[in-house]
Amino acid sequence: MLIDDVTITVVSGNGGKGAVAFNKNMMSLGPAGGSGGNGGSVYAEGIPDIGALRQFRHKKEFAAMNGGEGRSQFRDGRDGEDLILKMPVGTAMHNLDTEETVEITKVGERILLAQGGHGGKGNFQYKSSTNTSPRQFQNGFPGEHLTLRLELKLIADVGFVGLPNAGKSSLLNELTNAKARVANYPFTTLEPNLGAYYELILADIPGLIEGSSSGKGLGVKFLRHIERTRILFHLVSAESPAPAHDYGVVRKELGTYAKALLEKPEYLFLSKSDCIPPTELKVKLAALKKINPKVIAISIHDEASITKIQKILNTLKAVK
Questions:
Q1: What pLDDT does residue 222 have?
Q2: 249 half-sphere exposure, CB direction, 13 A CA radius
Q3: Residue 169 contacts by C-beta under 8 Å, 6 or more apart in sequence?
Q4: Distances (CA, A) of 90 to 49, 109, 110, 155
Q5: 90 Rama class: left (phi>0) / alpha (psi -120 to 50) / beta
């Protein structure tokens, strides 16, 4: 199960308190209390695993180590160890307390989420010409406590969109080494599937239905994944009695969710072309050509049509 929306609590470490101590042998030499160590900070780091948010499904609270207390003989406390939380590339982290949002957009990117508290001063830090034997010390400063909503938005070069059972998963499997589940009924795909065509990342977005933008079917849960795709491959099934209508349904839902989705480059395909008679295919292809003159009829069982798609992908790969 893909976890793509989860809320967690993050706490950075508290700073350790400073020490009050004096030289053991010669009191006249003054204070020797060390300062407390800094608390550990919490960072997010981008990784390519889109399933990495699974670690937050059950465990909801994450804390870095506190700083150690200062000690005698000028020995400062140890700094607390930082906590690194691995996040999938494409994760938006919404701070529910400040309403600020930061995003991880590349592998290896590291973002500070919660700064560790500074360690407190030991009494050695308070020594002065007028205060040669201070007993003052400083408590460590507290770490930060925040609530984060983690929202995964896939980042892909090409996103496959269309109504349920349009052949998106089958095409992904044909073009890549993906093992997306396929069957001849709606909603086979219940979570996005990714595949790699050389250096291009292809994403099979679960089927949309009329009303998806308002929460029907699989709802807006997957519409947000389309935001991060550069190019859309729009598949319309040749088995549909009205392919042009199906195309319009999906485009309407995309535009209702975010008008920017309608501005993405789009390639239109009439899929499952082997499932209907040639005369019927010709009529349906003509209807879609009124929408997009470059529409291509395809079938995963037709090597020539798959070659056409590969040529498109090769062109996209060359200009990436």
A1: 62
A2: 18
A3: 180, 181, 182, 188, 189, 193, 204
A4: 10, 11, 13, 6
A5: left
Q: Can you tell me the distance from the alpha carbon of 89 to that of 47, in angstroms, rounded to the nearest whole number?
A: 6
DSSP string, 44-78: EEEES-TTGGGGGTT--EEEPPPPPPP-STT-PPP
pTM of the model: 0.64
234 by DSSP, 3-state: which?
Answer: strand
Give pLDDT, residue 215.
Answer: 46
Query: Which runs of E-coded beta strand occur in the chain?
Result: 5-11, 42-47, 61-63, 83-88, 91-95, 101-103, 110-114, 145-152, 156-161, 193-197, 200-204, 229-237, 266-271, 296-297
Dist CA 108 CA 97 (whole Å)? 26
231-236-239 Cα angle (round to 5) = 160
Tell me how far the alpha carbon of residue 151 is from its chain's centroid: 6
| CA separation for the pair 275, 156 (Å, rounded) | 30
What is the spatial distance between Cα 41 and Cα 114, in angstroms, rounded to a whole number? 6
Q: Pick the closest to residue 252 from 217, 293, 287, 211 (CA basis).
A: 211
Angle between helix axes 303-318 and 168-175 (nearest 10 degrees) is 70
Report d(CA 64, CA 62) in Å as an integer. Answer: 7
**The pLDDT of residue 106:** 83
Contact 18, 119 (CB under 8 A): yes
Within 10 A of 53 (CB to CB), how many other CB atoms are there? 21
Report, as ranges of residue numbers, the positions in the chain whose pLDDT lies below 50: 180-190, 209-219
The H-assigned helical ranges of the chain are: 168-175, 220-226, 243-257, 278-289, 303-318
Q: Which of 269, 266, 198 is nearest to 231 (CA)?
A: 266
- Of 178, 227, 185, which is closest to residue 207 (Cα–Cα)? 185
